[in-house]
Input
Amino acid sequence: MHRPVHRDGLAGEPGPRALVGTATETAGYQLITRQFWPRLIDSGKPELVFQGWLLTSVCVVAMVSLILVIGELALGWRRAARR
Output
């Protein structure tokens, strides 16, 4: 069955995006708290500490970006629902 696509290109339902977004945010949090922080940053070795902070920063930027994308999608769904 064909789902209507709105003028802004968004499909009518958030279903799969919500699942993928939740899994991605969970994985990012677990990487930071279980890998980057305890194994790299707390290691005391300067090269591993730097690598830990770098990986943590990149992961946080990706997580924040995903939240912004999901927020923008939610606004689009809300606008589409009002039409």
